[in-house]
């Protein structure tokens, strides 16, 4: 199976853009996806999931130029897991989507 993720959601905060050594660009955003279903008694239930998204290069350029907080976008990428040690020496784990394509949907 191929590691592929597709999400459509709203951007939760202004993109964080970093220009790295060698001219590489990195963009970090969070996307909220919503799911709605109804219980047997008819009550409506809405669930929001937050997803960390990282983009590099041209995809990061597009995010920097066109993506703002609240904008609806679609992304395609792969799911990744990594860990790091925080400033107190505690191991932290991160799951994120590394985007390789972006679709600008909302206004």
From TrEMBL:
One example GO MF annotation: DNA binding
Keyword DNA-binding: yes
Keywords, sorted A to Z: DNA-binding
SUPFAM superfamilies linked to this entry: Nucleic acid-binding proteins
CDD domains in UniProt: SSB_OBF (cd04496)
Taxonomic superkingdom: Bacteria
NCBIfam families the UniProt entry points to: ssb (TIGR00621)
UniProt subunit comment: Homotetramer.
Record's protein name: Single-stranded DNA-binding protein
Gene expressing this chain: ssb
């Amino acid at each position: 199976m191929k590691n592929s993720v597709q999400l459509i959601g709203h951007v939760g905060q202004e993109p964080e853009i970093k220009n790295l050594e060698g001219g590489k660009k990195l963009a970090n955003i969070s996307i909220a996806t919503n799911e709605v279903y109804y219980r047997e008694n008819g009550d409506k239930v809405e669930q929001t999931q937050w997803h960390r998204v990282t983009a590099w290069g041209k995809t990061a350029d597009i995010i920097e130029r066109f993506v703002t907080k609240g904008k609806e976008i679609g992304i395609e990428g792969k799911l990744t897991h990594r860990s790091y040690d925080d400033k107190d020496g505690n191991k932290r784990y991160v799951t994120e989507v590394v985007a390789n394509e972006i679709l600008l949907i909302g206004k």
